[in-house]
Design brief:
Elements (H helix, E strand, L loop, with lengths): L1 H6 L3 H45 L4 H7 L7 H14 L6 E9 L2 E10 L12 E9 L8
Antiparallel strand pairs: 1-2, 2-3
Protein name: Flp pilus-assembly TadG-like N-terminal domain-containing protein
Keywords: Membrane, Transmembrane, Transmembrane helix
Organism: Planotetraspora mira
Length: about 140
């Protein structure tokens, strides 16, 4: 019985080291995936704000004449969206698409970069995430 006990001596240490590495690996994956998700949410937030700013470029003369809202010019709307993206001051944050598919909505797509922290040790680098948002002008007249 004593010989068997000596053979198994320290076997729990091997399992503990293995579980410790596995726990650290899972924590690293969670941190890096959280970084990726945070980048997507940031891109979505900026895209929403930029689309809202673009949707604010309405034609006031047309509104007074008809009581309806329309976006004046796609270029003006996209210029306002660019100003919002630039105001964040992040070099990794870029507007990659902007348009007014009709005269009632502005759609903006923003792209941002994200980096890995723990997975970089295994050669896994970050990447880019993009988000698209659409906004339209609202009036106090129910639309």
């Amino acid at each position: 019985m004593r010989a068997r006990a000596n053979r198994e001596r320290g076997s729990l240490s091997v399992f503990m080291v293995g579980f410790a590495f596995m726990g650290l690996g899972l924590a690293g994956i969670l941190v890096d995936l959280s970084s990726m998700m945070n980048a997507y949410l940031r891109a979505a937030d900026v895209a929403e704000q930029a689309a809202r700013a673009g949707a604010d470029t309405i034609d006031p003369g047309y509104l007074r004449e008809t009581g309806q809202v329309r976006i004046t010019d796609e270029a003006d709307a996209c210029a306002e969206a660019d100003a919002i993206v630039a105001a964040y001051g992040d070099a990794g944050l870029v507007r990659i698409a902007c348009g007014a598919p009709d005269d009632q909505h502005v759609t903006v797509t923003v792209q941002t970069t994200w980096d890995t922290y723990f997975l970089a040790a295994f050669g896994v680098s970050g990447g880019t995430r993009e988000a698209t948002a659409t906004a339209g002008p609202l009036t106090g007249l129910g639309g």
